[in-house]
Amino acid sequence: MPTFAHAPGEPARAREPFGQWASGIADRVERALERGLPDALTVPQRLHEAMRYAVLGGGKRVRPLLVHAAGELTGAPPSALDHAACAVELIHAYSLVHDDMPCMDDDALRRGKPTVHVAYGEALAMLVGDALQALAFEALARAASEGASAPATVEMVGELARAAGSTGMAGGQAIDLAAVGRMLDREALEDMHRRKTGAMLRASARLGALCGAPLDAVRADALERYSNAIGLAFQVVDDILDVEGDSATLGKTAGKDAGSNKPTYVSALGLEASHELAQQLAREAREAQRALGPAAQRLGEIAELIVNRKS
């Protein structure tokens, strides 16, 4: 049976420069995903091949980085963090597969290669998303066998379900679809993106922390403030990059939001004000990170990565 567990015998990672740490975590999660996804030779082969195509070999892995960074706050077992990291990345991958379909954002390029429905057909792409979502909860449920407490694992399952569901990511996407061709005010735009993008980023940090010892109320509040700031910052930067980036760098179609007449921070606030908002949110994230103490160093570095990224 596939497992997302960390390969035995690998040494614990020592403190190292952020770029090296982030690359190491991304590689670690990539290996865990490779182990946990069904083998492409297992029936139904084409579905499993398409699932692996959708997940492996691409993406920034920001959500797994958040899981592992938040886990450092609570002394979480790395193998439990691997399960949580795989769970959030599988949900993220499923959302991209569905978002790219003609009935949604209708895009042909993702992570520098043809989108799943282009490569495998629309019907199979729909099933790929369904199967990845189910596999995410299977991965998360196994965190209890890797050092996370059983009550915390139950809480994590609920947390991930809410973040992905109608009051989180799926609900945000529904609001986004209904808003095409309309101008949203800043409050409505923020509400949409706190659901569509922010919910899963907040859940990533929350799941990482839940894999270890409980946080006290003060530090839990600081982590929530941090997560809210970076969740919104990620979308603000996405909107900026849709205007300033190019398809080759982004790995997806640049200018898609404007071409689809979708409400964005740039269309609502302007480009300069959107840059200023991203920097303001980065400062809020840094302030919350400092309140969490030295163990939150990676969280601060991830905030900088999110705001300064080019893809």
Characterise the protein shown here.
Helix content is 68%, strand content 1%. The protein has 311 residues and is mainly α. A two-stranded antiparallel sheet has the order 1-2. α4 (78-99) packs antiparallel against α6 (122-141), α8 (169-178) runs antiparallel to α9 and α10 runs antiparallel to α14. The chain is globular, with a radius of gyration of 19 Å. It starts with 17 loop residues before the first helix and ends with a helix.
Give helix and strand order, one letter per element, not per position: HHHHEEHHHHHHHHHHH
- Order the strands across the largest sheet as they lie in space: 1-2
* Continuous helix count: 15
- Provide the structure class: mainly alpha
Assigned CATH class: Mainly Alpha
Summarize the structure.
It contains 15 helices and 2 strands.
Keywords:
311 residues; Farnesyl Diphosphate Synthase; globular; 15 helices; two-stranded antiparallel sheet; mainly alpha; single chain
Provide the fold topology.
Layout: H1 18-36, H2 45-55, H3 62-73, H4 78-99, E1 109-110, E2 113-114, H5 116-120, H6 122-141, H7 150-164, H8 169-178, H9 186-210, H10 217-244, H11 247-250, H12 256-259, H13 265-269, H14 271-291, H15 297-308
Antiparallel strand pairs: 1-2
Helix pairs in contact: 1-4, 2-6, 3-4, 3-9, 3-15, 4-6, 4-9, 7-9, 8-9, 9-10, 10-14, 10-15, 14-15
